[in-house]
Write a structure and sequence with these properties.
- The chain is α+β, with helices and mostly antiparallel strands and 486 residues long.
- It has 15 helices and twelve strands.
- The strands form three sheets. Strands 4, 7, 8, 9, 10, 11 and 12 form a seven-stranded mixed β-sheet that branches. A three-stranded antiparallel β-sheet has the order 3-6-5, with no helix packed on it. Strands 1-2 form a two-stranded antiparallel ribbon.
- A hairpin with an 8-residue loop joins strand 7 and strand 8.
- It is elongated and about 100 Å long.
- It starts with 6 loop residues before the first strand and ends in a 17-residue tail after the last helix.
């Protein structure tokens, strides 16, 4: 990976918590200001709602993610600097206005370049910040002197003594102090070395790193086809399962009593991602990312009856897992989902949401989509969400019907949906012309063309089929797990 400058702010640092406290104080002061003041709608949105949201975002994200992703402070800081610029412009007159705007723009640019990894030191940012504060104090002092000489000092003093404006002044001071501590709290990490774990940088998400060197055509695809459903490609195939059934029976004799077609398909897909990691990408916010983990989702019924409720399971695997290891992980999740009284995190969340009014539910759905688009959804929610993962698989065979083409979800990150149907028999001639009976299954794959091109998908599908045809190869870990491009 490209060796860029990265920063980390330890959660136990006193400065981190000072930033969080001051940001909350700044947000509260602005809320009080709008409650006791008199502002029109647009001013409330620009000067109150956005700064308050940015302050709260900074207060919570810095302690939670500052150690691994200090760059997450860039967005709230840019919003806050914009709000401070608007406040300064409204309070200033004459020659001070363009100076205030220029100072805010240069600071925002320096902050982005520093903690986005483009500058090798934060010294320039700190010096400019302190210089800008000193310049602002002197400019406003000079402006006050000019207004007094022009006979406007009394009106200016009355505005300054207005208790409502004191809340806004307190908010700005708290924000400026939080900015100072925010610049001081992170420390620069040592340069990244070959062989070390991937280091998150600006543009990455907690669940994946951004693919930065994709072909241009692949980069722009998601902008012209913004929904995952609109980018879907549909594949249907049939596979003869003589070797698969022999392998399944062998595994059951070895003690894996629930081992079946589902596990062979899963193990084959996981092994394919070890050879072709491009399958484990996803599109979010119109950008392509590579997932840090490999997870599979499936909806299961607690009992095979019409009245039995559904439950969603999500299982995490390693690309180097063997078929037996995949079976153990998946079977534990299946049995837990089917046992009475054991509910996964997603079930618990949906039960709580069921009590909300429809309007609140709609707002919650919008908020989740908004947070997911920008990669700021809580990681705990992503860990249990069935809409986020490497693969969604469904068994139509257990229902005794052929496979369906299941749509991809526009919410979340799942790029591939696989469904397989029931077993059936065909009569086919062998090489000597004698009629033989062979068993087959059909399976369908719906995939997001935004993550890789058609040639890559075709190669991956052929490799996946080869593993299903010869599942004994899944008993040994892969010699090499291929890394995706950067």
């Amino acid at each position: 990976m490209e060796n860029i400058t990265t920063y980390s702010a330890a959660r136990k640092s006193v400065l981190v918590w000072l930033v969080a406290l001051l940001s909350i104080c700044s947000a509260v002061a602005r809320i009080v200001f709008v409650c006791v003041g008199d502002m029109d709608g647009m001013n409330i949105v620009v000067r109150i709602v956005l700064p308050v949201a940015a302050n709260l975002l900074l207060a919570f994200r810095l302690p939670l993610r500052g150690e691994k992703q200090f760059y997450v402070t860039i967005l709230p800081v840019l919003i806050l600097v914009w709000g401070l610029c608007l406040d300064g412009v409204q309070a200033a007159t004459g020659f001070v206005i363009p100076v205030v705007i220029a100072l805010c723009i240069v600071f925002a640019l320096l902050y982005f370049l520093t903690f986005g990894g483009k500058l090798s030191s934060k010294v320039f940012l700190l010096i400019f910040f302190l210089g800008a504060i000193a310049a602002a104090i002197m400019l406003y002092g000079a402006q006050g002197l000019i207004t007094d000489l022009l006979g406007q000092g009394e009106a200016s003093s009355r505005a300054l003594l207005n208790p409502n404006f004191k809340w806004l002044l307190f908010s700005d001071i708290a924000f400026m102090l939080s900015l100072l501590f925010l610049i001081l709290c992170p420390h620069k990490l040592a340069p990244w070395k070959e062989g070390e774990p991937y280091r998150l940088r600006f543009g990455d998400r907690l669940d994946g790193r951004r693919i930065r060197n994709m072909p241009v055509m692949s980069k722009v695809t998601s902008y012209f086809m913004p929904t995952r459903l609109g980018r879907s490609n549909y594949i249907r195939d049939t596979i003869e399962i003589t070797n698969m059934e022999r392998y399944i029976n062998q595994k059951r004799r070895e003690g894996l009593k629930h081992f079946g077609i589902t596990h062979v398909l899963l193990a084959s897909y996981i092994r394919t991602t070890a050879d072709m990691p491009g399958l484990n990408r996803f599109v979010a916010g119109q950008r392509v990312y590579h997932r840090f983990d490999t997870s599979v989702n499936m909806v299961v019924k607690k009992e095979m009856s019409k009245d039995s409720p559904d439950s969603s399971i999500k299982v995490y695997f390693s690309p180097s897992d063997t078929a037996a290891e995949i079976y153990e992980k998946f079977d534990v999740a299946m049995q837990n989902a089917r046992e009475a009284g054991i509910a996964n995190g997603y079930d618990s969340i949906t039960h709580v949401l069921d009590y909300l009014p429809s309007v609140v539910m709609s707002l919650f759905g919008f908020l989740v989509r908004f947070l997911d688009y920008f990669g700021i959804m809580p990681y705990a929610l992503e860990r249990v969400s069935p809409f986020h993962g490497s693969l969604f698989i469904t068994s139509m065979g257990s229902l005794g019907i052929p496979p369906i083409y299941h749509h991809l979800y526009d919410l979340g990150t799942v790029p591939v949906f696989c469904a397989f149907g029931h077993k059936y028999t065909r009569y086919m001639p062998d090489k000597n012309g004698e009629i033989m009976t062979k068993k087959f299954i059909d399976y369908t794959v719906v995939c997001d063309e935004g993550i890789c091109d058609g040639f890559y998908y075709a190669s991956a599908m052929k490799k996946w089929r080869a593993y299903m045809t010869h599942p004994e190869r899944l008993d040994t870990p892969p010699e090499v797990v291929v890394e995706d491009i950067y």
